[in-house]
Design brief:
The protein is mostly helical. It folds into three domains: 57 residues, Double Stranded RNA Binding Domain (2-Layer Sandwich); 140 residues, no CATH class; 118 residues, Double Stranded RNA Binding Domain. 37% of the residues lie in helices and 9% in strands. The chain has a two-stranded antiparallel ribbon with strand order 1-2. It has a two-stranded antiparallel sheet with strand order 3-4. It has a two-stranded antiparallel sheet with strand order 5-6. It is globular. This is C2H2-type domain-containing protein. It is found in: Nucleus. Its main location: nucleus.
Length: 361
């Protein structure tokens, strides 16, 4: 199918190509895969139409699920997919609205609960990037995203003249402009920043409050976004698939490997526009930049003191709550900060942690 963006789009998986020949070659993959198909296996359960291949049936279902067949027979609401309808039906069967039965968190409405369960608790990883944990609604979107991890130059001819972000389709650019640069009804009551999407506001507010609702079930560490939790969970795995091309070291997380390689090359790609100082990681650069701008986005909701870093806000809040999570394993004395506990253990008990350097031959 030739789109109005000048690209040739596959009607089965939404992949885009610059020429008709490339599209034809791609389409053969759909028509040659799984050619032998029993009629019962290739019949749509919604309308009874039979198809030649599983791929064609799969594409047809993508259309069918948007039909009124996904209507709740109790309240007559319609949904985009059968799975979304099934999720909704649970609340007519006595499930508590807005309550996650898996982690016991509560949400203001059914839509936000569905997103939470789908993105955080689903076991289906088909549309989840194994590198960074981002979740996508379609296979084609995931595959396109994965190319950024492989260092490929992506064709993005449509550029937003307001923020410089690029897109492969004109329709995607239009959606971006309407979403990000036009009507922004959701306002942050901390800093008055506005957003077009409520979810974006919720994520932003966590920056002020220090809230980290995504908790690792192995070590208890919290994260403000599910992608951060997904990346962190690799720390608990024994697999180290990312090797340094220069030395024998291996890493569990690709980002850690990339930063390590920069230590060999001396590359510091993040340069401060105020003082010219360069940094190896975006995180350190962002923290440094706040020194120049005076930005203190993490504000205590009890006393109003603001901080540059979320961790400092977390420690500060313990003054108000009285929480002292750092416990001396020798005498049981508790401290708000880990550094104070380590100092106590060193001074009072003579405990010194010896760092052993590994020597590789």
């Amino acid at each position: 199918m030739h789109s109005d963006d000048g690209f040739y789009q596959c009607t089965l998986c939404d992949s885009c190509f610059t020429t008709q020949d490339d599209l034809d070659g791609h389409f053969l993959k759909h028509t040659t895969d799984n050619l032998s198909c029993d009629a019962a296996d290739c019949t749509c359960t919604f309308c009874g139409i039979e198809f030649r291949t599983p791929d064609l049936l799969s594409y047809h279902k993508c259309i069918s699920v948007s039909l009124p067949s996904n209507k709740c027979k109790i309240c007559f609401k319609t949904f985009r997919s059968e799975s979304r309808l099934m999720f909704h039906m649970k609340f007519h069967s006595g499930a508590k609205p807005g309550y996650c039965e898996i982690c016991q968190k509560t949400f203001p409405d059914e839509v936000k609960l569905y997103k939470h369960v789908t993105y955080l608790h689903t076991t289906e990883k088909t549309h989840c990037c194994e590198e960074c944990g981002k979740v996508f609604r379609s296979v084609s979107s995931l595959k396109y995203h994965q190319r950024t991890h492989q260092g490929e130059d992506l064709v993005t001819p449509f550029t937003c003249d307001q923020c410089g972000k690029c897109f492969i389709r004109k329709s995607m650019l239009r959606n971006h402009v309407s979403t990000n640069h036009e009507y922004r009804p959701y306002e942050c009551h901390y800093c008055n920043k506005t957003f077009a999407i409520e979810d974006a506001l919720i994520k932003h507010i966590r920056m002020h409050t220090g809230e980290k609702p995504f908790i690792c079930d192995q070590c208890g560490k919290g994260f403000s976004q599910s992608s951060g939790l997904y990346t962190h969970q690799k720390v608990h795995s024994n697999e180290r698939p990312y090797g340094c091309p220069i030395c024998p070291r291996t890493f569990k997380i690709k980002g850690d490997r990339d930063v390590h390689v920069r230590k060999h090359s001396g590359d510091r790609p993040y340069k401060c526009e105020f003082c010219g100082k360069a940094f190896m990681t975006q995180h350190v650069y962002s923290q440094h930049r706040k020194i120049h701008t005076g930005e203190r986005p993490y504000k205590c909701d009890v006393c109003g003191i603001a901080f540059r870093r979320s961790h400092v806000l977390t420690v500060h809040k313990r003054i108000h709550t009285g929480e002292k999570p750092n416990v001396c394993d020798i005498c049981g004395k508790r401290y708000r900060q880990k550094g104070d506990m380590l100092k106590h253990r060193r001074v009072q008990h003579g405990y010194v942690k010896v760092k052993i350097q590994k020597i590789e031959f």
